[in-house]
Amino acid sequence: MSPISFAPDTGVWLLSTPRTSYALRVDETGAPCHVAWGPRLTLEEAGRLAAAPPAVAASSFEGRPGVGEELPVDGGTRYGPPSLQARFEDGSRAFEWQPAGHDVREDGGEGELTLSFRDRRYPLRVELHYRVRDDTDVIERWTVVRNLGDQPVTLLRADSAAWTLPPLRDYRLGHVTGQWSAESRLHRDRLAHGETVLTSRRGITSHHANPWVMLDSGEATEDHGRVWSAALAWSGSWRVTVQRTPDGRAGFTGGLGQDGTTVPLAPGEEFTAPPFAGLCTDGGFGAASRAWHAYVLAHVLPHAREDAPVLYNSWEATGFDVDEVGQKALAERAAALGVELYVVDDGWFGARRSDHAGLGDWTPAADRFPDGLAPLVRAVHGLGMRFGLWVEPEMVNPDSDLYRRHPDWVLHFAGRTRSELRNQLVLNFARDEVADWAYAWLTRLVGDHGIDFLKWDMNRAFSEAGWPGRQDGTDRLGPQYVRNLYGVLDRLRADHPALRIESCSGGGGRVDLGILARTDQAWASDNTDAADRMWIQHGYGQVYPARTMGAWVTDVPNQLTGRTVPLRFRFHVAMAGALGIGGDLTRWSEEELRDGADLVAEYKRVRHLVQHGRLDRLAPPAEDAVSAVQYTAQDASETLLLAYRRVGRHGSPRPPVLLRGLTPSARYRDASTGAVYDSTVLAEYGLVPDLPPGDWSSTTTHLIREA
Q: Where do the Glycosyl hydrolase family 36 N-terminal domain residues begin and end (predicted)?
């Protein structure tokens, strides 16, 4: 069956994914309208659904329904949040749909539909793009707007897509909020009537929100119920507006940008919005997460089939006190633990002795690395590890040679104060010469030293986001900044195919589908406290897979929270993602080094399950109850259970945990104890995790299916 089909008699387009259907049509006014998004339909069924009368008769006071169009525009009797607002040179606004053709392309298991329109009066063309694949229920959508005239056009809003939900008894909105070191806090709340806006105005994805949503009727659970979800592939400022109308409908629109900024279109210029991908599932929030994980691993992440290496990062051990001798000593201890990738963090370059100076001067500090980085890189490679380096290419300290040479390269407004955060300013990557400068020194650094890994950091939000001397510079800056950032990453990876990159922005400030398409993992948070990380990782994993989630074991008392938890608990929490170590190994006792090596070895035995397997959240993080996550091989041949208890209270009940995703009527053997379990018992009656007594208790259970 073709993934894209059309019925000329009803005008309905039907997009088919493995388990869902998405239907739309062009109405009598020429506007593209939503028909259905949910369980599979035939083209005939979709046509009859499109012809059905509306559930609520339209009032003469209301105009067009508030939701239900594929890209609501500003114009006519529309009063909801528009996805597209255009202002023409003569002062006229609005857009009137006039169909201008369509295009269908199919290649193997992939299909793309393009619906073309133009304004009935002005030379403005709009294309709606839809992409479906035969291995995922995720539908990618984006919009292209082209100025065909000889006068400039200003897009006051240019979203990627709008999504419409069916009428439900109630609506619940799921999303994450947070701040630096407290990212990805999950919220699921009843959707308010009116408009709910989720946004970042910071120039980056942000710690405070993330560009994805999940909606349901309020009845979905982790394992049951229909859930609709969408995620934006964009790494700059963004905005998603969710609307609940008085007539019992809900929908949302999203794209790049923020209030107060526009998209200028010069004559002949084209604007392409970033993909806004969506999916529907009947399996609850867990199934939605697993569908997103599979999509990211199959179609977003560049090297998803690789195992992320166990890394060591020097930051918490050394701070800015970085030199060749100290790093070699740490590298020897890291190698003994079983680390596979050694990463030197901040402080290796220029006059960088604190966060007050040196950013922008990307040459090794001569007093700390008298022969450059080459001897350290050779030593690390000689220990059997890959070598990684921290960089922050988008930033500059005012106290730096680069800033003294190019003060005009930073974001600024002429005559305005240049606000500093963390004693630094943001370089204007929207300027091609800045992006080219960054690419040049990065490719030289990687190539000259044989660097295997970059931790690419971005430690502050935009301010004074201006571009003096450039017409419409402030409006062009945001989109062009991100596109040039993507361009640098793309060129760098093309030059060095073996290079792997981690996205970091003060922790989890830049995690999204756009940046993950160009990096290999993300630093989820600067907060490495295992107790806090349980909640951060719970929210992160709603959309993004464990393969992308950097998670470190660091020292106690924790530098941020002052909390002390056992080494084993810290490891077990970090083992739920891409394991890293960030403690000062020169201060670890012999017992800690032995235990650490054993735990690293244990992780290596099961990381294929964590990084490539199916995630089931069996019990969410809790203060005084057992929480558990399970990772299962795609063929169900083995599974890993990670269980945690923060507070151990005498006499508290110990309910069993019901495992998921196992082969029916099979038997599974515990790799550590040899105990054998029936899958039916594990799934229907459960397993009581063997947690040691006391607070901060954790355990792993690795089960292998018997032949």
A: 30-265
Residue 502 has a pLDDT of 98
Give the H or E element holding residue 315.
helix 315-318
Is the CB of residue 219 less than 8 Å from the CB of residue 232? no
Whether 624 is a known active-site residue: answer no
**pLDDT band at residue 247 using 50, 70 and 90 as cut-offs:** confident
**Catalytic annotation, pick one of 159, 526, 532, 555:** 526
Environment class of 507 (CB within 10 Å of its CB; exposed 0-12, middle 13-18, buried 19+): buried
Query: Looking at the domain 75-299, which fold is it?
Result: Beta-galactosidase; Chain A, domain 5 (2.70.98)
User: Is position 457 annotated as part of the catalytic site?
Assistant: yes
Fold of 311-612: TIM Barrel (3.20.20)
Domains of the chain by residue range: 75-299, 311-612, 618-705
Which residue out of 137, 361, 452, 457 is catalytically annotated?
A: 457
Q: Are 304 and 547 in contact (CB under 8 A)?
A: yes
Helix (H), strand (E), coil (C) string for 490-520: HHHHHHCCCCEEEECECEECCCCHHHHCCCC
User: CATH code for 618-705?
Assistant: 2.60.40.1180
C-alpha 558/C-alpha 90 separation (Å) is: 61
Minimal CA–CA distance to 360: which of 400, 329, 387? 400
Q: Binding site: residue ranges?
A: 180, 345-346, 422, 455-459, 504, 526
CA 91/CA 73 separation, integer angstroms: 17
DSSP state string for 352-410: -SSTTB-TT--SB-TTT-TT-SHHHHHHHHHTT-EEEEEE-TTEE-SBSHHHHH-GGGB
By the 10 Å C-beta count (0-12 exposed, 13-18 middle, 19+ buried), 160 is classed as: buried
The predicted-structure confidence for 392-405, as pLDDT tens digits, reads as follows 999 999 999 999 99
Tell me the pLDDT tens digit for each residue of 276-308.
999 999 999 999 999 999 999 999 999 999 999
Q: Which of 620, 621, 533 is nearest to 577 (CA)?
A: 533
Binding residues for substrate, as ranges, are 180, 345-346, 422, 455-459, 504, 526
pLDDT at residue 56 in the model = 64
DSSP 603: H
C-alpha distance across the termini of the chain, in Å = 37
Cβ count near 584 (within 10 Å): 14
* Helix, strand, or coil (residue 696): coil
C-alpha closest to that of 352 among 385, 323, 387, 313: 323
